Structure formats: structure tokens, C-alpha cells
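Researcher: Structure for this, please.
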Amino acid sequence: MTQSGENWFVEAPGDIQRIEACLSGVAYAPHRHDTYTIGITLSGIQSFTYRGAGRASYPGQIVILHPDERHDGRAGDDNAFRYRAAYISPVDVQEALNGQVLPFVEGGVSIDAGLHRAAAALLEDFKRPLSSLEYQDILYDLALALQAAAGCAVAMKRANREAAAGARDYIEANLSHGFSLEDLERATGHCRWQLSRDFRAMFGTSPYRYLSLRRLDRARRMMRDGGAIAEIALDCGFSDQSHFGRVFKQAFGLTPKAWLRSARRSHDHSRTA
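Model: Predicted structure, C-alpha cell format:
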């Protein structure tokens, strides 16, 4: 068993964000992602608060966190816990399900066999990037497994995918600029409030949080390249370094400096499960 105090994480290569982490104590402050988090606990007890209740995942169990749900992370005992996780865009899941609303798996922890198979296919081979076709195949199985585990395999009301996608494209083209729902309404030609509802159904979060997370994605890339955090904050559309730090911790549970220290140490650790 890995002893406490050896906190680290590594990222798998490729475009799909996949990490392996070894953490102890109170690992993450309360935060949210605008993606699904699909994880497998490898060792120790992975504990967290989710939807107002304490949860625990033991080795071999699957953690499924719905987009934009607040959660934290901590060890369930005096030992470290180790896990792998992938962060999957809600729109990828929706496209695999032909536009149906996002499946919600109650409780955040599952022992469902179908979900375990899909998660294992996503997370087992960690030393190489997934090819596009390979990821699409895994994603299809994962989306169906999520839907089955959520008990919602019957087709449900669909969101306006075109309007939501148009809003997403506008946001991604204007990461450094401020804008409002009215701007999105003008850009897409759709009612701002219906657009907001469709965006949440399609992407699992609000247009504003989507903008914030895309800015943070850009900031993390720039931090890895060695830029000054204060300059990165301004370049990525944040009002100042303090604002950037608050939003970063809300999103990832770590300060920018703590995240950067962990990322720089990660190459010293084995990725072997």
C-alpha cells in the first residue's frame, strides 16, 4: 500500500484527458467539472462528498460524477488511494446517444459490470493515446453503459443540438472576450433562455461555466509551457491573478501553483496499475 504523503498524478498521452493519481488526506477541495468523470479505484479507499452525502469507492469500483456536480476528494483511511479517471465531454455522450438527455447514475459509485467493462477499455492502456476510431468505439459502449446504469434506456426529449453547438462555437471563438446570453442569442438566432436550457442539456453545464473551463484549459497548457501565472490569467480572459486562482481552485480543487508542482513531479512515477 502506498503510504500517505506521496501525492502525485500523471496524464496519459493523447487528446482525451486521462489521469492516474495517488492521493492522501484531504486531496481536493469542493469543486466541479463540466465533463463526466469516469474513474476506477485501483487501491485504497476513495472517499468524497457528492450530492450532499458521503460516498466511498473501493478497489475495482467505478466512480461516475455527472457534469457540473460539486464534489471533493479524500482518503477514506490513513492510507493513500490510487485511481485512474477520464474526463468525457457530455456532447460526446449525447452524440453517441443521438441527442438524448444525459444519463445520471445515482450515488456516484457503481459496481455495474457493463459500466466496468466500458471504463476499463477507456483506462487500461495508459501509455499510448487512443486513436480517433478506437475512442469512438469505446465512447459508444460507455454511453450505452451509462444509460443502462442510469435506468433510462428509453428515448427522451431531445435538445436543440444545432442551437447549442452554435453557441459552443461562438464561445470557443471568443474565449478572451466577455459576452452575454443576448450575444449568444444574436449569434445563433435562438431565444436566449431556451438556448441556455438546450446548452445545459447538450453540454452538461451552463454557457458561462463552459467559457470558464475552456479558458482554464488554455491556461493549463500555457502554464505547462512555463509562462508567468499573472500574465496567463490576463491572456486567458480573467480579470487578475486572484480571480484566476479562485476559478482554478473551484474547477480543479487545487491552486494553480499546487497543480503545476504536482504536474511537474508526475514524470517520476510509474503508470503501472
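Researcher: Any notable elements?
Model: The radius of gyration is 19 Å. The chain has two domains: 8-155, 161-260.
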